[in-house]
Amino acid sequence: MSQEKEAGNAAGSTGTVEELLQRRMAGRARRRRTSIGSVPRADPPLLSYEQRRLWFLDGLVPGSVAYTVPSTTRFRGPLDLSAFRSATDAVVARHETLRSRFDEAAGEPFHRVDEDGGTEFTVEDLSGHPDPERRAREVLADEHEVPFDLRTGPLLRTRVLRLGPEDHVVSTVFHHIVFDRDSLAIWNAELGEAYTAYQAGRAPNLPPLPAQFPDFAAWQRQTLTEERIEDSLRHWVSRLAGTPAVLELPADHPRPEMPSHHAGVLDFVVPGDVSDRVRALAERRGTTVFTVALAAFHVLLGRYTGLSQVLTGYPSNGRTEVELEGLVGFFANSLPAHGDLSGNPTFEVLLDRTHDTLLHGHQHRAVPFDRLVDRLVPVRDLSRNPLVQVWFDVATGGGSRTASLPGVEASTFDVGSAHTRFDVEIHVEDHRPAPLGGRVFYARDLFDPDTMRRFAHHYTVLLASLVTEPGRRISRAELLDPAERDRLLAWGSAPV
Predict the structure, then answer these.
(1) pLDDT band at 245, cuts 50/70/90?
(2) What 8-state DSSP symbol labels residue 321?
């Protein structure tokens, strides 16, 4: 067993791969305070590497909605719209990145931070409509199709729809260049505190931020040197040698030359006993639920494509320093995960391979994804996402998806429309002790809903088989449940 696994066993095996690696570091804190501080604003601050990638993608496909991030909440109760508007303005004023727009000089993009640049905030009364809820979904589906202009901003907009005297739907749409998944928890927490304060007639009690996003971008460029980037690129080129550049899942429709990015969405649940076995296996093997779930997903992709080498993408959180923990911004980097199914290993062996792949990848997690794409996929194909066409993620814990406001009940509001940059992306949620749950986003250009329902079902059946008998060869794991297997056998025995 590797040193990484021994450390994982000694420390307990919960959390992300990043946390496992950090536990190896002789008791050091998960994040340590560094030298990130305020940089002079005499010259317009440059973008982070991750932001720079989105800037150039926006120029490549202007008007795309692939990188919009909507958050929609239904509030039932006496919502104070004046306090809510003031709270929104206060959070935007607090984070420079939410007041940023972007421009370019001599081929290099930079931030323009506006002192008074806020969010578009509109209120519309739908209470007189025969079906206010249905009309709200129509309005917001159209709203989520409106692209942002990175040069003019603002890069977030809030729309309040009044369905009744004490029934409101609030949609805030961000551009990904200023916002990521962890930002949502920060946004909701600060929005709740500011709203509570303004409703009570006092100023919000929010601690000062030790740094702003442009400070992080400057620090990143100082610390992530060309030498470090080149070292990481050599690692990835070596690791991914021989891996197919394209993962082509069997599709229902021809791939269009330009994707619409319209996504179908479906949810699935892993049965409780299977979820328990997933967590128990992760603990026994000194790894994470993410590793187990990802390895099983790689087996599924191998079954669907016939490949022994598959490649998926997953997010790496760039908030590695104390100063960044409470900062709204785009800190997520994309990393490739290589699934090596060669030799028909047992699932336990595949887990070891996946665990080591993720840990080695974590050591080179800061490499800018666009640099990796340039090195490995020099010719771009605008019909598909470069390098990785399938995305996988496991979320553990985290903040609320909705803001907590006094006297108001908050719940997520499903608009019924979504976007994806990938052919398929799967997001698993591990909120113990509840069973594992998941959501599949799939390109409607390529797949029909029934196809993706079978895909998600096959994943849960295969996961159950793999974690129940992890010592078996992966080729012997069950993909079909008994009912589906019986139907196929009946068809096969029918007279021709």
Answers:
(1) confident
(2) B
Distance CA 96, CA 84 (A): 20
3-state secondary structure of 428: strand
DSSP letter string over 220-286? Answer: HHHHS-HHHHHHHHHHHHHHTTT--S------SSPPPSS---EEEEEEEE--HHHHHHHHHHHHHTT
Residue showing tokens 């932001």: 51
The CA-atom distances, in angstroms, between 279 and each of 431, 447, 467 are 11, 31, 9
Residue pair 142/169 in contact (Cβ under 8 Å)? The answer is: no
Rounded to 10 degrees, the C-alpha dihedral 227/228/230/235 comes to 140
d(CA 242, CA 459) in angstroms, rounded, equals 26
- Top CATH class, 49-214: alpha beta
Spatial strand order in the sheet of 424-430 = 332-340, 309-317, 390-396, 424-430, 437-443, 262-269, 418-419
Q: Are 247 and 306 contacting, i.e. CB atoms less than 8 angstroms apart?
A: no
Question: How many other CB atoms sit within 10 Å of the CB of residue 489?
Answer: 11
Whether omega for the bond prior to residue 154 falls within 30 degrees of 0, making it cis, is yes
Residue the block writes with tokens 């290099």 = 108
Residue-level length of the chain:
496
Residue 108, beta-bridge partner list: 105
Give pTM, 2 decimals.
0.90
* Cis preceding-peptide flag for 433 (omega within 30 of 0): yes
CA neighbours closer than 13 Å in the CB half-sphere of residue 3: 6
66-108 tens-digit pLDDT: 999 999 999 999 999 999 999 999 999 999 999 999 999 988 9
pLDDT band for position 34 (50/70/90)?
A: low
Strands of 298-367 (E only): list them.
309-317, 332-340
pLDDT in tens, 8-29: 332 333 345 545 444 433 333 3
What secondary structure does DSSP assign to 176-224, as a single string? GGG--HHHHHHHHHHHHHHHHHHHTTS----PPPS--HHHHHHHHHHHS
Measure Cα distances from 174 to 65, 157, 263, 354, 362 in Å: 11, 7, 18, 34, 28
Domain ranges (residues) in the chain: 3-34+219-493, 49-214
Q: Which CATH architecture has domain 3-34+219-493?
A: 2-Layer Sandwich (3.30)
Q: Do domains 3-34+219-493 and 49-214 have the same CATH topology?
A: yes
Helix, coil or strand: residue 40: coil
- What is the enclosing helix (H) or strand (E) of 437? strand 437-443
- The model's pLDDT over 185-224, given as tens digits with 9 standing for 90+, comes to 999 999 999 999 999 999 999 999 999 999 999 999 999 9
- Enumerate residues 6+ apart whose C-beta is below 8 A from 272: 435
